[in-house]
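Renewal narrative, Specific Aim 1. Our central claim is that a sequence can be written position by position from structural information alone. The example that follows is taken directly from our test logs and has not been curated for this report. It begins with the structure tokens describing the chain, in the order in which they were read.
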């Protein structure tokens, strides 16, 4: 298939996606995105990693990394004395956790406690971490106003990618997720990277570990191309996922 023909095919796929997303009242999955959600890319490697519909803007190449929500009830945190307090901004003790768990929470940014509450890292007070109990956001929150969505939310350097941008990552298209859905390549820049100096996009993976699961072959590997979608596609995807990512709490 020629490059011109390939791009025309992808553009048709995105148009089809818009029809599905805006016209169906039921739940929609990645598999509704024509070839983007049907598994193998129709082109030869490495063309699959470079293809993007006409009108999408190339933002550069970024190394994929991943981050997760900690789960205090998981076996990896079974040991350790809960001696470290998690303090709210007002200084109230939310919970006590092990030193190792608290250190990792400060790195990852959000966690589910043994009692089921979800906590997020809040703004520090006098240079010390503070935490916030988050409701109606099962995986926590990213940048202000955005809930985290597994395999959709990415953390970015806001100097390179504006928060709120809808992204297309060809290297993600066709990847089978733990839900058995097939990723369509679309993501949301709804979180800030912990290390803005790095040329990375940090993909949120829910409760999966950083090195296992659907993204094991991508995380920490070679840089992948990242695109900003066109305004019409962004509008369709924002409408589709608004209930999942909008946080006004």
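The sequence written for that structure reads:
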């Amino acid at each position: 298939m020629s490059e011109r023909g390939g791009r025309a095919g992808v553009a048709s796929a995105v148009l089809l996606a818009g029809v599905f997303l805006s016209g169906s009242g039921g739940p929609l999955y990645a598999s509704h995105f024509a070839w983007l959600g049907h598994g193998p890319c129709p082109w030869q490697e490495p063309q699959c990693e470079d293809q993007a519909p006409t009108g999408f803007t190339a933002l550069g190449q970024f190394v994929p990394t991943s981050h997760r929500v900690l789960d205090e009830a998981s076996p990896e945190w079974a040991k350790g004395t809960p001696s470290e307090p998690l303090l709210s901004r007002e200084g109230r003790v939310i919970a006590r956790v092990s030193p190792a768990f608290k250190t990792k929470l400060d790195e990852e940014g959000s966690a589910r406690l043994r009692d089921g509450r979800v906590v997020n890292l809040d703004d520090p007070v006098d240079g010390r971490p503070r935490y916030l109990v988050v409701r109606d956001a099962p995986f926590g929150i990213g940048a202000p106003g955005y809930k985290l969505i597994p395999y959709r939310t990415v953390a970015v350097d806001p100097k390179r990618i504006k928060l709120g941008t809808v992204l297309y990552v060809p290297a993600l298209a066709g990847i089978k997720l733990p839900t058995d859905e097939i990723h369509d390549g679309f993501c949301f820049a709804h979180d800030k990277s912990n290390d803005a100096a790095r040329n990375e996009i940090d993909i949120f993976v829910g409760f999966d570990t950083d090195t296992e699961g659907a993204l094991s072959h991508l995380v920490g590997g070679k840089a992948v191309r990242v695109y900003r979608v066109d305004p019409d596609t962004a509008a369709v995807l924002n409408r589709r996922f608004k209930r999942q990512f909008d946080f006004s709490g």
